[in-house]
Amino acid sequence: MTTKNDHPKLISITDVAKRWRTTRQNIWNMCKDGRLPATMIGSRWYVIFDSVLKKEQPTNLGDK
Question: What is the number of other CB atoms lying within 10 angstroms of the CB of residue 53?
Answer without folding.
Answer: 12
